[in-house]
Amino acid sequence: AHQGVPGEVLRLIQSAPRGCFDSALLAGGWNLLSQEGLPCLLECQRHGIAVHVAGIFASGLLVGADRYAYKTAPAEMKAKAKKWQDLAEKHNYSLPAVAMAFAALPKIVSRVVVGMATPEQVEQTLKTMEEGGKVSGEIWHEAKESGLLSEKVPLP
Q1: Pair 37, 153: CB distance under 8 Å
Q2: Distance between CA atoms of 126 and 116, rounded to whole angstroms?
Q3: Which of 16, 19, 41, 130 sits at a 20 to 30 Å CA gap from 124?
Q4: Model-level pTM?
Q5: Using CA atoms, how far apart are residues 80 and 92, in angstroms rounded to an integer?
Q6: Rounded CA gap, 112 and 128, in Å?
Q7: pLDDT per position in the chain (156 positions), as tens?
Q8: Are 62 and 84 in contact (CB under 8 A)?
């Protein structure tokens, strides 16, 4: 499955002189369904490189589309998204708000990139962002306990 290009970002950071980069774009490797970008985030943190995270809705699967990695969503990803949906509802949050909050969780993340095409989507994104700011840390610990998040994912 497509996981963005965290390995390529990592390669660039490690092969360039320290101080060469002040920011990096991690697209698709850091969302509720994939944390493959964790090594990239940790390396950026070590080097003081701000990270901009994109692909936070997993090609749309986390906002109701039947798409993951730009293809029809496979059953295992749909099942994982459903578990996240159930957990979000249990804590009285929308799934998009939980996805947005997770994307911004690492301290090194300075920007969360969200695509919008209409004024209505801008309005909805602003509401989601506001709700995402209210997501409590309790949900991340429960996600780890249930296996939705890897034990390697650092939590506040």
Answers
A1: no
A2: 11
A3: 41
A4: 0.93
A5: 18
A6: 12
A7: 434 578 888 998 999 999 999 999 999 899 999 999 999 999 999 999 999 999 999 999 999 999 998 899 999 999 999 999 999 999 999 999 999 999 999 999 999 999 999 999 999 999 999 999 999 999 999 999 999 999 999 998
A8: yes
The label of the residue with tokens 């730009």 reads 70
Residue type present at position 107: K
Contacts (Cβ under 8 Å, ≥6 apart) of 71: none
CA angle 136, 141, 146 (to 5 degrees): 130
Q: Give Cα separations from 84 to 40, 80, 121 (angstroms).
A: 24, 6, 22
Beta-carbon contacts of residue 118 (< 8 Å; ≥ 6 apart): none
Q: Burial level of 131, CB count in 10 A (0-12/13-18/19+)? A: middle
**Long-range contacts formed by 7-14: CB under 8 A, 24+ apart:** 7/40, 9/37, 9/40, 9/44, 10/39, 10/40, 10/43, 13/40, 13/43, 13/44, 13/47, 13/49, 14/43
